[in-house]
């Protein structure tokens, strides 16, 4: 096994922003794998601007056991030298400091400078695409792997599309996959302020994202799909295909018993970036030091993933909940454009979100009672040759589903930790470096099996002739 530039670092991983609401759940998940048999995780450091808060979070995360002795490192986003020092000591940074558009870049920059690997739980497309634009080449050169969206945003979407797509065995082929996210709980479903703030600031950066895309060369789009749908149809600048019919704004999806509306999350954008990279590299991206066997395994994996149009909706059992979410969307969409509106939203999150987001986050009980289901309804052809026969409509449907615990503070830490363990144990099989999507980096690894072993399941629900 070749030595990576990070082989001699003091810590296997450092959790930055470990004092945050999500950060403390990430510590709790990480402790489950510290020094356990066959775990590559032998040392963890906690980092942030307030050592006392970090120590409190460690105490909370290890309760009822006494806190283990972990190194606590002071690092502030506004102090680049503290970040460089931090990155020099660790193989891998798990960044939980958000909103990422405000605080993320100095961390990526320090990791790339030093050549350490970086994962985060960002769900902000503008930040992710900007980092790719600025740091990809340097990351490749320095051997620093930078992967955003290693949480509920957007790993279930990435792996879910692949899982659905892989059920379409030739001559079958998918045309589009629509995902429906459904959040369930006996208690209230509540998110922490940090996620709300990231969403509100996201509205203000929509135009920046469009500007950024206009300034960049066009990305490749999947060319061998069996429809004309563009993978980039949220991005008119890059869209040259005809997407499947849009359908109504509010949809009643009888098959899964949900009312649904489009979810403006990062998922579809991240999946499209993955498909674009795949179009440019049909066998995926080579590992830094992979064996011939691994090359074959990776290429075989990607040969079973067929690109398809992808969209995400959020679904509820009642129409009333749809009205609530649309109202929330309108508030964020309108108020988020102006600084006074943003101030009001961020000052009174509970009022404007009708209780969905709280400054102090959900209680432990609310977190424990929540769960999610993410349905993937794939439509396509029972025989791929049908697709070339004019306007022949899809005649087959495959429904798959991912289920798991609460999304922000249980599922996200589970995903982030499993991605981290893969980086630590299978680095030779992963790309040398660069800013890449979780799908491209972790798709051909055992991430799905690992998530299944940790409470997130992937099921084939049905394969039927299409009724659509
Ligand atoms: N992908 C997903 O599905 C998912 C799930 C959950 C959360 N998230 C994202 O994760 C991010 C964090 O959310 P959260 O609810 O955990 O927020 P939070 O509770 O506000 O935590 C923010 C963290 O950032 C730290 N921080 C802020 N400014 C800093 C600075 N200048 N230097 C160093 N550290 C600094 C805070 O430190 P202090 O404690 O010292 O203030 C805290 O540890 C958000 O962007 C959210 O959208 C994503």
From TrEMBL:
GO terms for cellular component: lipid droplet; mitochondrion; plasma membrane. It comes from the Eukaryota. Transmembrane segments: none annotated. GO terms for biological process: glycolipid biosynthetic process. Pfam families: Sacchrp_dh_NADP. Residues 214-251 are annotated as: Disordered. Residues 15-146 form the Saccharopine dehydrogenase NADP binding domain. Belongs to the saccharopine dehydrogenase family. This is Saccharopine dehydrogenase NADP binding domain-containing protein. It comes from Stephania japonica.
């Amino acid at each position: 096994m070749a030595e990576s530039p990070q082989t001699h670092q003091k810590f296997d991983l450092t959790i930055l922003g470990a004092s945050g609401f999500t950060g403390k759940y990430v510590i709790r998940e990480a402790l489950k794998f510290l020094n356990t048999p066959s775990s590559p995780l032998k040392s963890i450091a906690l980092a942030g601007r307030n050592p006392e808060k970090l120590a409190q979070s460690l105490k909370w995360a290890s309760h009822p056991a006494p806190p283990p002795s972990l190194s606590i490192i002071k690092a502030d986003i506004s102090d680049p030298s503290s970040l460089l020092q931090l990155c020099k000591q660790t193989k891998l940074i798990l960044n939980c400091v958000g909103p990422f558009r405000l605080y993320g870049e100095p961390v990526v920059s320090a990791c790339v400078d030093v050549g350490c690997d970086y994962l985060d739980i960002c769900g902000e497309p503008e930040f992710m695409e900007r980092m790719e634009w600025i740091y990809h080449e340097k990351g490749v050169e320095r051997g620093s792997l930078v992967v955003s969206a290693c949480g509920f945003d957007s790993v279930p979407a990435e792996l879910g599309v692949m899982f659905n797509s892989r059920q379409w065995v030739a001559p079958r082929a998918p045309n589009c996959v629509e995902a429906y996210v459904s959040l369930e709980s006996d208690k209230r479903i509540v998110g922490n302020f940090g996620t709300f703030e990231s969403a509100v600031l996201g509205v203000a950066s929509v135009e920046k994202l469009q500007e950024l895309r206009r300034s960049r060369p066009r990305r490749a789009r999947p060319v061998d799909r069996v429809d004309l749908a563009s993978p980039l149809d949220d991005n008119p600048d890059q869209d040259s295909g005809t997407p499947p019919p849009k359908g109504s704004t509010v949809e009643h999806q009888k098959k899964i018993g949900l009312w649904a509306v489009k979810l403006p999350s990062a998922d579809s954008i991240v999946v499209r970036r993955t498909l674009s990279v795949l179009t440019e590299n049909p066998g995926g991206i080579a590992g830094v030091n992979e064996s011939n066997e691994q090359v074959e395994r990776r290429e075989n994996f990607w040969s079973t993933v067929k690109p398809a149009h992808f969209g995400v909706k959020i679904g509820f059992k009642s129409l009333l909940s749809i009205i609530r979410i649309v109202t929330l969307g309108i508030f964020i969409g309108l108020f988020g454009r102006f600084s006074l509106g943003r101030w009001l939203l961020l000052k009174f999150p509970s009022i404007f979100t009708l209780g969905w987001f709280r400054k102090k986050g959900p209680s432990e009980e609310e977190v424990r009672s929540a769960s999610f289901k993410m349905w993937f309804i794939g439509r396509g052809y029972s025989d791929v040759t049908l697709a070339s026969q004019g306007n022949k409509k899809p005649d087959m449907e495959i429904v798959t589903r991912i289920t798991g615990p609460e999304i922000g503070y249980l599922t996200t830490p589970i995903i982030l930790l499993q991605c981290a363990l893969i980086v630590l144990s299978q680095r030779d099989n992963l790309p040398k470096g660069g800013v890449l999507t979780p799908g491209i980096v972790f798709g051909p690894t055992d991430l799905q099996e690992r998530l299944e072993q940790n409470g997130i399941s992937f099921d084939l629900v049905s394969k039927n002739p299409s009724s659509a």
